[in-house]
Amino acid sequence: AxxxxxxxxxxxxxxxxxxxxxxxxxxxxxxxxxxxxxxxxSHLPPESSDVVIxxxxxxxxxxxxxxxxxxxxxxxxxxxxxxxxxxxxRASTVLSVGGIRQQFSxxxxxxxxxxxxxxxxxxxxYLAVADDPPLxxxxxxxxxxxxxSEKGAAIMENNVKVQRQEGAKVCLMSPEQLRNKFPxxxxxxxxxxxxxxxxxxxxxxxxxxxxxxxxxxxMGVLFCRGEVTRFMSSSNLMKTASGEEVNxxxxxxxxxxxxxxxxxxxxxxxxxxxAAGAWSGQVAELAGIGKGPPGTLQGTKxxxxxxxxxVYLWHCPQGPGLETPFVIDPSGTYFRREGLGHxxxxxxxxxxxxxxxxxxxxxxxxxxxxxxxxxxAQRVPAFETLKVRSAWAGYYDYNTFDQNGVVGPHPxxxxxxxxTGFSGHGLQQAPAVGRAVAEMVxxxxxxxxNLSSFLFSRFYSGEKVQEHNII
Amino acid sequence: MLKIIIPTAMLMPMTWxxxxxxxxxxxxxxxxxxxLISLPYLNQLGDNSLNLSLLxxxxxxxxxxxxxTTWLLPLMLMASQSHLSKETLARKKLYITxxxxxxxxxxxxxxxxxxxxxxxxxxxxxxxxxIIITRWGNQTERLNAGLYFLFYTLMxxxxxxVALLYIQNTTGTLNFLIIQYWAKPISATxxxxxxxxxxxxAFMVKMPLYGLHLWLPKAHVEAPxxxxxxxxxxxxxxxxxxxxxxxxxxxxMTNQMAYPFMMLSLWGMVMTSSICLRQTDxxxxxxxxxxxxxxxxIVAVLIQTPWSYMGATALMIAHGLTSSxxxxxxxxxxxxxxxxxxxxxxxxxxxxxxxxxxxxxVSLANLALPPTINxxxxxxVVMASFSWSNxxxxxxxxxxxxxxxxxxxxxxxxxxxxxxxxxxxxxxSFTRENALMALHLLPLLLLSLxxxxxxx
Lengths: 471, 456
Description:
Largest sheet of chain A: 8 strands, mixed
Number of domains of chain B: 1
EC number (chain B): 7.1.1.2
Shape of chain B: globular
Membrane topology (chain B): Multi-pass membrane protein
Helix content of chain B: over 70%
Order of helices and strands of chain B: HHEEHHHHHHHHHHHHHHHHH
Domain NADH:ubiquinone oxidoreductase chain 4 N-terminal (chain B): 1-109
Strand order of the largest sheet of chain A: 5-6-4-12-13-14-11-15
Strand content of chain A: 25-35%
Shape of chain A: globular
Structural class of chain B: mainly alpha
Subcellular location (chain A): Mitochondrion inner membrane
Structural class of chain A: alpha/beta
Strand content of chain B: under 5%
Largest interface: A-B, 34 and 25 residues
Strand order of the largest sheet of chain B: 1-2
Order of helices and strands of chain A: HHEHEEHHEHEHEEHEEEHEEEEHEEEHH
Oligomer: heterodimer
Enzyme class (chain B): translocase
Radius of gyration of chain B: 21 Å
Number of strands of chain A: 17
Radius of gyration of chain A: 26 Å
C-alpha cells in the first residue's frame, strides 16, 4: 500500500488530494452539509431586500431598529444594512465625545433629545436580547453648562424659554450662583449661564452602537460589509398639479461592492435610506441628487460634507471634581470630565478659515496649544497646568446649509430617505430620528415628533432651521 | 385532438424562426387561436365522452380543463413580456419554448385515454416547470424551491407507477374507457390498502393535501410570473383530475380509506386560510389561499357523490382563473415597486384606479361571491359534505369566513388607505396588463351565466 502511494505521488501527483476532495464533497452533499451547486455566495448580500440602509452607524442602526419595531405584521420588511467598515474606525459615532443635551433653540431638536434620553435611560427595555447581558451605557447625568457673554444673554434666555416649553429642565444662573456652585470657574465675561439639571450628560457611544447592532441582528436585519457604488434607477416624467414637468426617479437596484474585491452584488430594493454620515453627500451624488442646473430642485445637492474635529484628553490633578458638567464656553471651547481620575475631554470648533483638511484623521496638536488651551485656562484657572494624554480626530457630517439634520424623503428621487447631516449632534438624537424616519417610511408622515421643517426641500426653498449658539 | 396538438407543437419552430420583434406577437396570437379551436370540445353530448382516437378522448371533466390550459398560454406569454425584456433573444425564445412544451404535455395529459400515458405525461410536466422555476426565478431560494417541488411530486408518484402496472397486469388494460366498465369492487385487504394509497398519494401531493403542501408556497413565491400562473391554474388541477379518474378503480374501499385524508383536508383548509391572515408577502398569501381552495376539491373528490364531483370541477376551473389573475396582479405590483411586501405598496387605488377595479373583482371572485362559479363550486361541495356528515358544516363555514377575511385584508392593504410616498412615480397600467386581467375575468364572468359547461 505504501508503495502504491509513493508511486502515485511521483506520477499522478495528487491521488491523495483527490481522495480527500471526493470525501469532502460526499460529506457536504450528505444532509447537514451546505453544498451549493452554484459558487459560494455567503459573503454577498441577498439579491433583494425591501429596505437598504446605506451606512451602519448609530443613525443607520437606529432606523433599522425602529423599522423592525414599528412594522405592523412582525417580520414583514426585510432590511439590509450596508456598512463598509465593520471596525468603525472612521465612523463619527464612535469618535464622538458622547454628550447629550436638550439645550437647543430649535424646538424639534429639544423634542428629539428628550425622546433620545428617555430611550437611553430605558435602554435595557428597548434593546433587550434574550440570553444576552444587559447594556451599561455609563450615562453620567452631570448636565450641560452653557456660558453666555453679554451679547448672547438675551438669546440664551429665549432659548431657555423654548426649552422649558418643550419640557426640558434647565435653569438660568447668574455669575454669583455660578461661583457658588462651581468654585473652580472664573466668571469673567460671563453674563448668564444655563445649566441642564436633568436628562443631560454624556454616555458611551460604542455601547449604544453595539447594543443596537446586537438587537437589530436579533430582529432579523441583515448586515453586509460592502460599499455602495451604484444606484440603478428608473425615471418617469410626470406633471405636477401646477402643470410643470418633473422627472421623478426611483431607485430599483443598489450595487454593493464587496471589500477588497471587484465583486459586486446588485440588490433589488424598494426603499433606500441614506445614513452614511459624513459621506452622505457622496452617496447622494451617486443617486443623481444635485445633477441639474443650479438653482433648481434638480440641481440642489445634499449639502453634507466631511469636517474634521479634534478631541483632546488631558490630565489635571487640581481640576474640577465629580460634579463638573459639560461646560461650553462662549468662545466655543468645551470640555467635560472623563472618568474618575481627573481626566478631561475637550476641544473647540474651528472657524471657517481654520478648517482642517478632512482627508485624514491626523491630529494637529498645535491647534490645542493655540486655540483650545488659552480659553480653557482663562475659564478654569486650574487648567493652567495640565498634561495632554492623547487626542483623536473625528468627522462631523456637517450640513453646510444650517447645521441641522436632514430627515425624510427626497422630493425627486422618491424612494431615497435621508437620516443624516446632524453636524455633531447626531449621536444624541439618533434614537428619535430613527423613529421619525421609520414612521415616515411606514406611515407616510411623522407621527410622534413633527420634523417637517427638517425635510430636504428646505435646501431648495431656502428656509434655514438654524440654531443659535451651537457647537 | 391532433388539431390541437400539432399546432401547439408547431408553435415551437414558429418561435425560433420569428423575427426578434415579432416573437411575442406571433406566439400570443397563435396560442390564442389554438385556444379558440379547443372551445368546441366543451359542447359535450350527454353523459358520454367524445372518443376521438385510441389515444385521446375528452369528456365533460377533461374538456373544461383542456380549455383552461389552452386559454392560459397566451395569458402567460402576455404576463412574461416585461420581466423578460432584458434577456437575450435566445433566452426569451427558450422561455417561450419551455412554456409551449409544458402546454403540449398538459394538453396530452388531460386528454389521455391510457392511464400509463397519463402518468408519463404527468411526470413529464415536472421538467419544464422545474426549468422555468430554477432558471428564471427571482431569488437564490429558487433552487431550494425547485428541489422541494420536484422531489415531493416524484416521491408521491413513484408508487403510482407500481400501482398502475399492477392494475394493468390484473385487469389487462388501463384504457380509461374500458376500465370504467371492468372495475371490480376491491375488498379491504392489506395489499389493497397499499394499492389505494399508492394510487392516491401522487395526486394528494399535487393538489396539495395539507400535510404535504410545503412545496407549494416555496415554488409559487420563487417562480416567475408564468411559472406561478401555470402552477396555480393548471398543475394543481392535474391532481384533482387524476384523483377523479382513479377513484373509479378503487371502489368501495374509498369509503374507509378516505377518512384520514378527509380530516387532513378539512383541518388544513381552515389552517391554511388562517395562515393567510398572517402573511406579509403577497405571493405567499395567494399561494396559501390556493392550498385552502384545493383542500375543498380534495374533500369533494373523496366524498364521491355526483354533486360533489360537479362542485369539484367548477371549483377547479374557477380557482384556476382566479388564482392566476391574482398572481398577475401581484406581479404587476412587484414590477413597479420591486418588493413583494404588502405594506410597502399601499393605497394603490388612488394611483392606479383601473387596476384597483380588477383587484376588487378578483377579490370578490376569490371570496366566492354569488353568482360566480367559485360560489357554485363551493356551495356544491359544502352541500355534499354536509350530507356526508353534518359536522363538517362548521369547518366549511369557518373556512368561508376566513377566506373572506384574508381576501379583504389583501384588498384593503394594497388598495385602500393613504399611498406611501415612495410609490408616487410608478408607471401607469399598461394596456397589456389591462388586457391580461380582462381576459382572465371574462371567462369567469361568462361562466357565471352558463355554469353547466364546467359542471362536469
